[in-house]
DNA sequence: TACTTATATACCTTGACACGTATATGCCAT
DNA sequence: ATGGCATATACGTGTCAAGGTATATAAGTA
């Protein structure tokens, strides 16, 4: 359970993160709002804390948890690699501005699927430079 | 295994997605580049396909897989909820805008924890309107 | 027709993790 | 100190998913 991706794979953890967007919360508050048992909340918070998603400060007997930005930036950085790709696609779908991308066929737009070429060169003109 | 988050939690699947950014690939090509067994690749591709991350076209005996944008947009939409937050924080850390957070010491910088208020109102002035 | 390549699927085993119950720890109040 | 509240942790259990091996399916080729 190291990667940020595994951390946010858990629905309850995502719920906790969403809760904390508005403001910091104590364990009990989270417990009540999300209707989870207290140990479950504590455990998820532990995971989130160790992954850097949240931090806590002590307030008497309670702990107030709040978000930390770093892991989100990491997620964003990963997504960024695909962002160029999908924005191309959004364009291609919404409109038909293929001429704006003279060299990026965006895969989806052209003949879609029935390409059915002679196999050997079915991939031609599509890949960048990885004849492999 | 419904959510996009669970899909990308698997390292091998992320590797496949990263591979497909550059261009579409056949199962065999993925298998060789990532050094995974063929059934493993097929299985992951199945998961990715059913989750809408990829689509495939038949090319003789092979299947060519390529990315689809929708799930990435979904991820981006989720991240967006936190984006405002973390950019705020970057500012908050670099500078010292504590007056914006009269009682949220950001943990890192100021009084750390000893805030030690009367408890009952420790959270006051921080929440939006979710007294719940 | 056989043989080979490419991919998908089935079955099994294993390990991880999420949850619940119970309990420990720590802080407050009386 | 004693009891109560807030949170953390331990332990046992069930589920589920990932990987491996074997096999099925399908399309090429000789």
CATH architecture of the largest domain in chain A: Orthogonal Bundle
What string gives the helices and strands of chain A in order?
Answer: HHEHHEEH
Q: Could you state the oligomeric state of the chains shown?
A: homodimer
CATH topology of the largest domain in chain A: Arc Repressor Mutant, subunit A
The chain-level structural class of chain A is mainly alpha
Alpha carbon gyration radius of chain A: 23 Å
| CATH superfamily caption of the largest domain in chain A | Winged helix-like DNA-binding domain superfamily/Winged helix DNA-binding domain
How many distinct domains of chain A?
A: 2
How are the strands ordered across the major sheet of chain A?
1-3-2
| Total count of helical runs of at least 4 residues of chain A | 5
* Residue runs with pLDDT of under 50 for 5 or more positions of chain A: 95-132
Measured by DSSP, the beta-strand proportion of chain A falls in 5-15%
Proportion in helices of chain A: 40-55%
Largest sheet of chain A: 3 strands, antiparallel
* Beta strands of chain A, count: 3
Q: What is the CATH class name of the largest domain in chain A?
A: Mainly Alpha
Outline of this structure?
The structure is a homodimer of 132-residue chains. Chain A is mostly helical and 132 residues long.
